[in-house]
TrEMBL record:
<dbReference type="InterPro" id="IPR029058">
    <property type="entry name" value="AB_hydrolase_fold"/>
</dbReference>
<dbReference type="GO" id="GO:0016787">
    <property type="term" value="F:hydrolase activity"/>
</dbReference>
<feature type="domain" description="BD-FAE-like">
    <location>
        <begin position="68"/>
        <end position="257"/>
    </location>
</feature>
<keyword id="KW-0378">Hydrolase</keyword>
<dbReference type="InterPro" id="IPR050300">
    <property type="entry name" value="GDXG_lipolytic_enzyme"/>
</dbReference>
<keyword id="KW-0732">Signal</keyword>
<dbReference type="InterPro" id="IPR049492">
    <property type="entry name" value="BD-FAE-like_dom"/>
</dbReference>
<dbReference type="Pfam" id="PF20434">
    <property type="entry name" value="BD-FAE"/>
</dbReference>
<feature type="signal peptide">
    <location>
        <begin position="1"/>
        <end position="20"/>
    </location>
</feature>
<protein>
    <submittedName>
        <fullName>Acetyl esterase/lipase</fullName>
    </submittedName>
</protein>
Length: 309
């Protein structure tokens, strides 16, 4: 078949528009201005892929966001920042980050994987402040680059898994608190996957200790128990949890849901009898849990996030 120059240009344009753009990684903070950072060359970032094929990252010193953008002809204008889990000790960056980004891209939603720092006295002052500061900075950067990344700054959410769910819930309930309060850091919606929510009786002890240390005060525990920090400004939220989760008790999601309802915040929660913890999209053979992505897609649709604006 022979193409005229005009037809060839049109074909190339069509092919380009149908392709997802190459991911772009951006540092959260200017060089030498990383929030609460302590220089320590003895600590170096590690990235390892396990036998399960999951990329895990630890000892992060230079936090980033990586933009995964859908094809321009498919983009709805909605965007979401992804917070991988890992008990505040590492980031399950592969299946709870990159794999989820591709899932959102397939639905026209721009995805931004957060590589936040984990609490570490060796490289940070006031380590309990650091993950939230990175998450807030991530949301600000996405909004500041909204035109570049073809996203609507009023249709920007957050999703978090396990301890990343705690970070997403903390962002949802603390963006307007403290010295760094900023409306620019507010998510317009949130998705919490088997999230750590409370640091009280049903806490994931490892996450609490990593963030607050072994001797946290009752005030600190309450401040980072996000079911106690929900207010009228908390964004609409979608929650997923398995009832047989041995790592993070299902009450974490239930109590957050009830707190949202107390303030009449739109909320949808899906509890499944089996499924365990840490599955993300890897749900094959986990019974009815296999349906959570479809339920989430329906929720996104009901929120108007799959419609082009």
């Amino acid at each position: 078949m022979n193409f005229t120059p005009t037809l060839l240009s049109a074909a190339l344009l069509l092919a380009t528009s149908a392709m997802a753009q190459k991911p772009e990684t951006v540092d959260l903070w200017p060089t030498n201005q990383v929030f609460n950072a302590i220089p320590n060359e003895a600590v170096q970032e590690k990235a390892e892929t396990g036998k399960d094929g999951i990329l895990r990252i630890s000892d992060v010193k230079v936090p980033t966001i990586t933009a995964f953008l859908p094809p321009k002809n498919k983009a709805t204008g909605a965007g979401i920042m992804i917070c991988p889990g890992g008990g505040y000790a590492l980031l399950a960056y592969g299946h709870e980050g990159e794999e989820m980004a591709k899932w959102f891209n397939e639905r026209g939603i721009a995805a931004f994987v957060l590589k936040n720092r984990l609490p570490d006295d060796r490289t940070q002052t006031n380590k309990h402040e650091v993950p939230l500061a990175d998450a807030m900075q991530g949301m600000k950067l996405i909004r500041q680059n909204a035109a570049k990344w073809n996203v609507d700054p009023n249709r920007l959410g957050v999703i978090g898994f396990s301890a990343g769910g705690h970070l997403a819930a903390t962002l949802s309930t603390h963006y307007h608190r403290g010295a760094s309060a900023s409306e620019e850091a507010k998510p317009n919606f949130a998705i919490l996957m088997y999230p750590v929510v409370t640091f009280g009786e049903k806490a994931h002890a490892g996450s609490r200790e990593r963030l607050l240390g072994k001797n946290a005060s009752p005030e600190q525990v309450a401040y980072y128990s996000n079911e106690l920090q929900v207010d009228a400004k908390t964004p609409p939220t979608f929650l997923v949890h398995a009832e047989d989760d041995k790592a993070v008790p299902v009450e974490n999601s239930i109590d957050y849901y009830l707190a949202l309802k107390k303030f009449n915040i739109p909320a949808e929660m899906h509890l499944y009898p089996t499924g365990g913890h840490g599955y993300a999209l890897r749900t094959k053979g986990k019974g009815s849990l296999e349906g959570w992505p479809a339920a989430c897609e329906n929720w996104l649709k009901s929120m108007g996030l799959l419609d082009k604006k």
